[in-house]
Amino acid sequence: MITLCGFPISNYYNIVKQVLLEKNVPFAEEHVPTKSLDEAVLSCSPLGKIPFIRTPQGGLCESHVILDYIEAQYPAHPLLPADPFAAAKVREIAMFLNLHLELVARDLYPQAFFGGTVSAGTQARVRQQLEKNTLAFLRLTKFSPYVAGDSFTLADCVAFNNLPLIGMATRAVYGEDLLTAAGLDYKPYLKMIGERASSQKVIADRKAANTKV
């Protein structure tokens, strides 16, 4: 059985968790803080990053690697198309969203969510990047009705757990949602995906974890 390690406030933890739920893969959860120096953690995730998973064969870290492993190891209820190019397009959307939207917006999180401050220079840089990258993201995506087309895929697990964070962070720092301002009308999409059982489980567990912080 897979053990998912991390905590349910993390968007990347929740991406992996939603994939496991959608694919009906049995798994356990183990609370592990980020940047742990515990040897049992470092043996699986050498930088102490979460999420990581423990499998009967050993540990795996890095979200995209974990997702590829789950898809290959548990082919039932596929979250990637059978066609190699179509599967690559799904991965492309997921990677683009993680690297060019969420990772860019992450520089705002200290001020948006944790009571810190972000310099004016960082704010200006992030805004410029996000405005440019959101327009590029719109070129890749379909939202018809799912982010990669007419089927729910791995990319939807990434989008559902990342887009709200980016929107909230930019609204908190700039006073406006930069995704919406760039023409990405993602709220109806989130509502639709939020009706899935996997989404509701992820949201409920995240809310429960937040009340303990």
Instruction: Determine the mean pLDDT.
Output: 96
**Global outline:** globular
CATH class division of the largest domain? Mainly Alpha
Largest sheet: number of strands, sense, barrel closure: 4 strands, mixed
**End-to-end span in angstroms?**
28 Å
Which structural class should the secondary elements be placed in? alpha+beta
CATH architecture verdict of the largest domain: Up-down Bundle
* Helical content band: 55-70%
Task: Determine Rg (CA atoms, Å).
Answer: 17 Å
Strand content: 5-15%
Number of strands: 4
Low-confidence stretches: none
Query: What is the count of DSSP helices, taking H or I runs of 4+ residues?
Result: 10
Give the CATH topology of the largest domain. Answer: Glutathione S-transferase Yfyf (Class Pi), Chain A, domain 2
Instruction: Strand order, main sheet: write it out.
Output: 2-1-3-4
